[in-house]
Amino acid sequence: MIQGFFPNLLGGYIASIVSLSSSKIGRWKITNYAQIDKYQREFEKMLTEMKAKGVEKIHLFATTPVSLSFSLGRVINHYHPEIIVYNYNNGTFDWGINLQNREIIEPVSQ
């Protein structure tokens, strides 16, 4: 769900928060591959829609099981927007990596 676009202080526009979530939030809630497959299809659909709307860069903050993270990563293609994925560690996103050019972004937060 794309919630809208807001003016960027530097000019142009930035996208608001885009959310892909479940009503069953919590540990051990993904119990089968069908659930992962559904998220994977929705994520790919979101990426394609964002690219079609002119989105050039996505900052991805995810707190997902490793199996889901790998599955989402499998659908990212070179024609999708540039994606920066941030690492979640003990309650904070402590660094990120640009999946297009492999640049490490650190520190993200203190």
What report would you give on this structure?
The chain has 110 residues and is an alpha+beta fold. Helix content is 26%, strand content 25%. It has helices at 33-52, 66-74, and strands at residues 5-7, 13-15, 57-61, 82-89, 92-98, 104-105. The strands form two sheets. A four-stranded mixed β-sheet has the order 3-4-5-6, with no helix packed on it. A two-stranded antiparallel sheet has the order 1-2. Helix 1 packs across helix 2. The longest helix has 20 residues, at 33-52. Residues 1-11 have low confidence and may be disordered.
The count of β-strands is 6
Question: Rounded to an integer, what's the Rg over CA atoms?
Answer: 15 Å
Instruction: List SSEs in N-to-C order.
Output: EEHEHEEE
Query: Judging from the principal axes of the Cα atoms, what is the shape?
Result: globular
Helix segment tally = 2
Sequence of strands across the biggest β-sheet = 3-4-5-6
Assembly status: single chain
Low-pLDDT ranges: 1-11
The portion of residues assigned to helices is 25-40%
What distance separates the N and C termini? Answer: 29 Å
Sheet-strand content, in percent, reads 25-35%
SS class: alpha+beta
What is the arithmetic mean of pLDDT? 80
Give a brief rundown of this model.
The chain has 110 residues and is α+β, with helices and mostly antiparallel strands. It has helices at 33-52, 66-74; strands spanning 5-7, 13-15, 57-61, 82-89, 92-98, 104-105.
